[in-house]
């Protein structure tokens, strides 16, 4: 088996007496979607924040592409190919879809935005942007104002902006949130394809999406991973049913 792209080893984080991350170990392999599920407050966002570098762990390591990146800043991790999406929408609503993608490509190259017009004439940036829009299926909407897109199309644009970074992994925090059935179905189709470009660590409450997409699922409860396995293994796991899935039946 090839080495994992991303590894989290024995990560710990406490807020006062609360152990939000309790000795968490997991990995993300090439080509897979690894879903991280768990009840509200289980520590999913706290874990992602430690992976991206936004929050320092108390102890433990994060490895990325074979090296320990525990000492790197958020920006350094992003430049190394760690793309995080969906927590906060960073799209400029008054700009066109293409302009947002071009600005993403500019940021990915470490460029600083000063004037839109010269940026929009840069052939390399335009090519990267068009390619990303093509991948997510938004080419026909390139010249639309972002504010005029549907909610689901904005999520697709956020993926396109992340793609301009040429990511090696995607960390996605509840991408299905707020989407209707049509938007969810489109995003599921997109993520299904995207895993081959870069593996996805997916935090998601929408269990239909998780069961449709995940190669593996890890279940986090009170900061601890209580199980990792395939969809079938997780569905059949009594501890998971009791701690988490059972809640939904109730
Ligand atoms: N900065 C902080 N200071 C103190 N406690 C925090 C802080 N951040 C998170 N927590 C606590 O840590 C626990 C885990 O929170 P976290 O947001 O990671 O959970 P989550 O699984 O992402 O939840 P949700 O599904 O609701 O987003 C919660 O009890 C939360 O209140």
UniProtKB/TrEMBL annotation:
Stored SMART domains: AAA (SM00382)
Keyword annotations from UniProtKB, A to Z: ATP-binding, Hydrolase, Nucleotide-binding, Transport
Keyword Transit peptide among record annotations: no
InterPro entries: AAA+_ATPase, ABC_AA/LPS_Transport, ABC_transporter-like_ATP-bd, BCA_ABC_TP_C, P-loop_NTPase
Gene Ontology cellular-component terms listed: plasma membrane
SUPFAM superfamilies named in the record: P-loop containing nucleoside triphosphate hydrolases (SSF52540)
Residues in coiled coil: none
Top-level taxon of origin: Bacteria
Cytoplasm as UniProt keyword: no
Domain ABC transporter span(s) in chain numbering: 6-247
Any one GO molecular function term: ATP binding
EC numbers, comma separated: 3.6.3.17
Listed name of the protein: Galactose/methyl galactoside import ATP-binding protein MglA
Organism of this sequence: Thalassovita mediterranea
UniProt lineage: Bacteria, Pseudomonadati, Pseudomonadota, Alphaproteobacteria, Rhodobacterales
């Amino acid at each position: 088996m090839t080495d994992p792209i991303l590894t989290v080893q024995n990560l710990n984080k406490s807020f006062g007496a609360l152990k939000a991350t309790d000795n968490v170990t997991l990995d993300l392999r090439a080509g897979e979607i690894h879903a991280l599920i768990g009840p509200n407050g289980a520590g999913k966002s706290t874990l992602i924040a430690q992976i991206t570098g936004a929050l320092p762990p108390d102890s433990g390591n994060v490895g990325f592409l074979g090296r320990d990146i525990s000492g790197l800043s958020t920006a350094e991790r992003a430049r190394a190919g760690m793309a995080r999406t969906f927590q906060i929408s960073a799209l400029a609503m008054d700009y066109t879809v293409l302009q947002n993608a071009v600005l993403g490509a500019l940021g990915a190259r470490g460029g600083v935005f000063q004037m839109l017009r010269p940026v929009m004439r840069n052939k390399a940036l335009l090519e990267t942007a068009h390619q990303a829009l093509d991948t997510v299926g938004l080419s026909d909407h390139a010249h639309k104002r972002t504010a005029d897109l549907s909610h689901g199309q904005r999520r697709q644009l956020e993926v396109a902006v992340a793609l301009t970074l040429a990511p090696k992994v995607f960390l996605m925090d509840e991408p299905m949130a707020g989407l209707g059935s049509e938007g969810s179905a489109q995003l599921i189709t997109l993520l299904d394809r995207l895993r081959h470009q870069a593996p996805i660590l997916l935090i998601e409450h929408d269990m239909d999406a998780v069961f449709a997409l995940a190669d593996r699922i890890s279940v986090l409860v009170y900061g601890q991973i209580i199980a990792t396995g395939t969809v079938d293994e997780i569905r059949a796991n009594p501890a998971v049913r009791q701690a988490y899935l059972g809640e939904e039946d109730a």
